[in-house]
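Teaching soon. Invent one.


***
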Amino acid sequence: VSDDGEAAKKYSTLLDLLEKETVSYFAINSKILAIVEASPDGAAPEEAIKLIFGETRKPYNAMLQVVDDIIESNTKFAEFQGKIVAVAYDSTVKIILGGATLAVLVALYSGWKITRMIVVPVGQAAEVARKVAGGELTTKITISGNDEIAELLASVAEMQKSLITLVKNVRQGSESVATASSEIAQGNMDLSSRTENQASALEETAASMEELTEAVRNNADNAREANKMAVNASDVATQG
């Protein structure tokens, strides 16, 4: 910027100098033309020739030098501007590349962050669901945020609580059924024991009835023998 300002200042100075030398040159030319026009035969008098080859040389050469300086200044300024453009181009390319790299990094980080925000909770929910399906109901579920994934985890946690309650109720029912079955088994054992006792008593009664029947049978036989003996005695007595 400093070189740019100095070049512009130098260029302005050269323009002012060119204007000054041009004014001087054309002033002398005007004098020459006046002398030529004043000549009666239209020829260039000696005074005009002296001015052409004398006094006009200084402003003319000065004009040429200023023009050369202006051309050189323009060339240097153009080179300087070219360098500025090149630097600006390099800076622009670097900025664009840096911005593109930053955009890619931001996109990668955003993708990684979004992936963690989605994949990790979904994986946690899937893992909990697998453990619940396998019968493990003590897995701790951590819920963070208020997005759809958090709602999914909350639903899984609610399902886990419902399953725990259901399992407790089923376990209590199973324990009640087991207690009732144990009591029924004990009652069946008592009934079986009483049935065995009654069967044993019936067997003893049957044995006693058989003994009684045998005794009655023996008594009947004895009675028949006694009757026979009584008949025989009666016959003997009748005969006697």
